[in-house]
Write a structure and sequence with these properties.
Number of helices: 12
Low-confidence stretches: none
Distance between the termini: 57 Å
Mean pLDDT: 92
Helix content: 25-40%
Strand content: under 5%
Strand order of the largest sheet: 1-2
Radius of gyration: 21 Å
Length: 306
């Protein structure tokens, strides 16, 4: 019995050590930063709107120029607790003004902050990880031109065991993937651009795709709709078998530009902020998003019938 107990304890120590190693925060290699050069601020602004930065990081209900003050504070309710969006303005104390581009890129692609800690996946780095380093460089450059805010956002209200950041490293092993979600046939440049925008900076799947019991996206039913994590209702199915089944690519592109549906309805709910951002993209980007959404596989609704 003593020998058996020693074997069990030794095995537990080995497993614990392995999990500790596997869950360690991982950062980008230095080679990822080679050859980037000076950021293109105009392209950075496009990535800013494509990425929806202001939708979460501006103060709730802000309007006009205030949308460019990334003061944080928005609460995001979930089954795991309430997450508060941080200040990411250039303020050196309350914001991320003390960060380097390397810190920023690691947060976007690896989900690791400047202190080397795992970020909770309420921040959609599982999508942003698909962004190119050039686009991140441009985005970072543009963000340095925005106003600073000294607002200190509240800390997250997340209970045990979901507040164990080290455990997020194990979650990432399952769900942080940098490759494309879909393997689409052909080499249509417009569809490829749309795929990049939807699966990467646009992070559309973070809301429009159902999740499993530990919060991972069910990629096999990509964009099939989901329960609304912020309250009542659903996020619609936007595959070719979903709520936009009868819409043409032109209808989708026009909706993203104007906020009006082919049925003469207008955008509502959390999509209002998304459409506001999409309207600031070049027309060809909205058309690319529409082409991609018409090219992906259709799925039944990813939420319970109602």
């Amino acid at each position: 019995m003593r020998l058996l107990l020693m074997i069990v304890v030794a095995g537990a120590v080995v497993v614990a050590a392995a999990l500790w190693i596997l869950s360690a925060p991982k950062t980008l290699p230095q080679s990822a930063f080679a050859g980037l050069g000076e950021p293109d601020l105009d392209r950075g602004e496009q990535m800013f709107w494509a990425g929806g930065c202001t939708s979460c990081h501006a103060a709730p209900r802000s309007q006009g120029a205030d949308k460019l003050i990334l003061t944080g504070g928005l609460s995001l309710k979930s089954d795991f607790g309430t997450f508060y969006v941080p200040n990411i303005s250039p303020d050196p104390n309350a914001g991320i003004g003390g960060w380097t581009f390397e810190n920023f890129a690691n947060s976007m692609k690896q989900g690791v902050d400047a202190a080397g800690r795992h970020l909770f996946p309420s921040f959609p780095y599982t999508s942003y990880t698909r962004m190119t380093m050039a686009d991140l460089n441009d985005l970072w450059g543009f963000m340095q031109t925005l106003p600073a805010s000294d607002n200190v956002a509240p800390g997250h209200d997340v209970g045990f065991p979901f507040n164990i950041r080290r455990a997020v490293g194990l979650w990432k092993l399952l769900f942080l993937k940098s490759g494309p979600v879909l393997d689409l046939p052909g080499d249509d440049a417009q569809i490829q651009r749309g795929q990049y925008l939807v699966e990467g900076p646009g992070h559309c799947g973070e809301c429009h795709t159902p999740r499993n019991m530990i919060g991972g996206l069910k990629l096999d039913v990509w964009l099939s709709g989901a329960e609304n994590p912020d309250g009542e209702g659903i996020i619609p199915n936007i595959t070719p078998d979903g709520s936009v089944k009868s819409w043409s690519a032109g209808d989708i592109a026009y909706y993203l530009e104007s906020g009006f549906t082919p049925e003469f309805d207008s955008v509502g709910g959390s999509m209002v902020a998304v459409q506001f951002n999409m309207a600031k993209l070049p027309a060809e980007d909205r058309q690319a998003i529409a082409a991609y959404l018409k090219a992906i596989p259709g799925h039944p609704n990813g939420y319970a019938a109602r």
